[in-house]
Input
Amino acid sequence: MKRLLAVLGAVAMIGGAVLVRGALTGDDGDGGSGGNGSGGDGATHLICATELADTCAALAEEDGDVTFDVEPAGDTAERLVDPAFRPDEADFDGWLTLQPWPALVELRRDLANQGAVLGETSDVLATAKLALVGPTERIDQLVAACGGEDETSWRCLGDLADDAWADHGGETSQGRIEVGHDDPTQEATGLLVLGQAASDYFGTTDFASNDFDADPGFRDWLEQLQNADPGLPPAVAAQPVITQLEQFPNASWDAVGTLDPEAIATKARTSDAFTVLYPSPMIRAEVVLAPIRGHEVDLSDDDLDAALEDTGWTLGPAPQDAPVGPSVGVYEALIDEWKLAT
Output
């Protein structure tokens, strides 16, 4: 079966094709059906968020009509929000990424009184848990300092961050406690982990940006967490935090927030020298496909599902009892708070 993201009128003319997973379309019906997209001949070019690089590689290997580029979600969002961006001139047809990034693009363009550049974002295609991973010895020490595995939360990690290990049962030679995550202005995972950390601080995912002012301790806590940095050389620090940790397990982070597939893969590659924990609230990373307005994204459901599953994602939406992450507006406000804190 083919997923065709196009104007609804075009669907009727394509034999055997149907719109699935939320009736995806590259045009929302108010004049955005540009005819210059590169998907019209069956070829599809995707921009893939960093976290989905392996998924896109697997998809392209299976379907020779699929090509892709990989870049951080923040870079793609910046390009899409640029007033000079023209969907009908875009050299890519769709964006395979994680929520809330398509919603952030829509919010930023709306606030700037700019027209839509994305078609209807798909339903959630797959999910993954957020995880905390670190060298087993350090994770054991963090668990002890927090009072047990169930108490080893981002709220506790923020309280410990940048303190001397010697003050929390460690050795003076261990230096300071350094826990972190990827840059939330750039990497989709970094923003999700920041949202998870803030949700744990407030005790709910249903908090608002005015809570930052209502609780003056939040900004101090956030600054302490975000500035607990191992100070690695710039070339190393530019890599994802999970890569930094794996390459320099004794000289970088004590623990980092990342996606479960990445954490499990690191654990396997290092002969179980790392331990993986799952802090609450267990917000899921959600994979979605956002078409560029007026473009077709011609993909096989089966191929895309197989590529996601083979690279560690769980197909379909999150379980009904999984907590819903913060709103898109709160994520945007958290980015501003992170910039101030760092």
